[in-house]
């Protein structure tokens, strides 16, 4: 039994005529008669008791008709929802954003996307890039912003932002008047880092160890603005992307270029290579890629 069988039976009863039902369904009368006969043969029952020109349902036909209404309503609802999803009238996206990326780069993008696709819900999770990467990998998130480089065997990506880290310190710090500092100059400093869920946490430690020392970490935080406040209170030094340093109060914090080595800060949009991806998520990827391309 197929959905169309239920539609045919409902239309025949509604019109009390095979011919009129066929016209309403835009098929021929022999076709609708053949489909009903095939159904009767399949189920080994009679749906209609043929008595001259009268069309009457058998008991089995009555049972089918009683269930046909709710089934057809559910089917129509399903097809409407599928069409909405297909044409992006509705849907949802689970997206992960690191705090720095979310606050600086995405409010306007989100606004423009919602204006174009008001029926799509975006469920955002703010977390460190490392935690977001894990959530994309296990399917908890559909897409997210990560700190590059990422595993190209597991994720597809496209670049969003390319920047470098600067060292931020209190304006009275002994290194604050230099145009640039080397990583070796910071060996005796008190470091304020992002927490362990953030990829920058391990990145900075690895860079320091590569030149011969392990940084002395005094505080960790998940919020870049709080890190800035701790630096302005002269509790230690920290490293933030240049684009973030530009919004810090220069009267309270001095940002100095880092060299030997420079530490890149590259944000990428990432999603799993394998697995199902909704149309809404595909459109989000395409939409944001276009906007960030316009900005470069």
Automatic annotation (TrEMBL):
Source organism per UniProt: Paenibacillus foliorum
Signal peptide positions (record): none
Assigned GO CC terms: cytosol
Matches recorded under Gene3D superfamilies: 3.40.190.290, Winged helix-like DNA-binding domain superfamily/Winged helix DNA-binding domain (1.10.10.10)
Protein name: LysR family transcriptional regulator
Matches recorded under InterPro entries: HTH-type_LysR_regulators, LysR_HTH_N, LysR_subst-bd, WH-like_DNA-bd_sf, WH_DNA-bd_sf
MF term (GO), any: DNA binding
Domain HTH lysR-type: start-end pairs: 1-58
CDD domains membership: PBP2_CidR
């Amino acid at each position: 039994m197929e959905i169309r069988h239920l539609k045919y039976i409902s239309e025949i009863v509604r019109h009390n005529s095979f011919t009129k039902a066929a016209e309403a369904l835009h098929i021929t009368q022999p076709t609708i008669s053949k489909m009903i006969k095939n159904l009767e043969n399949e189920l080994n029952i009679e749906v209609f008791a043929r008595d001259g020109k009268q069309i009457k349902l058998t008991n089995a036909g009555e049972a089918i008709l009683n269930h046909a209404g709710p089934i057809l309503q559910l089917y129509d609802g399903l097809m409407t929802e599928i069409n909405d999803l297909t044409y992006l009238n509705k849907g949802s996206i689970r997206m992960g954003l690191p705090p720095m990326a979310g606050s600086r780069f995405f409010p306007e993008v989100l606004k423009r996307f919602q204006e174009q696709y008001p029926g799509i819900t975006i469920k955002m999770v703010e977390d460190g890039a490392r935690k977001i990467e894990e959530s994309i990998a296990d399917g908890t998130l559909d897409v997210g912003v990560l700190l590059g480089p990422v595993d190209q065997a597991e994720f597809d990506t496209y670049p969003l932002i390319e920047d470098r880290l600067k060292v931020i310190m209190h304006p009275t710090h002994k290194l604050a008047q230099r145009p640039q500092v080397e990583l070796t100059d910071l060996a005796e400093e008190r470091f304020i880092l992002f927490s362990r869920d953030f990829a920058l946490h391990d990145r900075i430690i690895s860079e320091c160890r590569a030149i011969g020392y392990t940084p002395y970490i005094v505080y960790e935080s998940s919020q870049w603005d709080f890190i800035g406040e701790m630096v302005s209170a002269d509790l230690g030094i920290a490293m933030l992307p240049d684009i973030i340093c530009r919004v810090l109060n220069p009267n309270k914090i001095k940002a100095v270029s880092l060299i030997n080595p420079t530490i890149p800060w590259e944000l990428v949009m990432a999603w799993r290579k394998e697995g199902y991806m909704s149309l809404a998520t595909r459109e989000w990827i395409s939409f944001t890629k276009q906007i960030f391309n316009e900005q470069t």
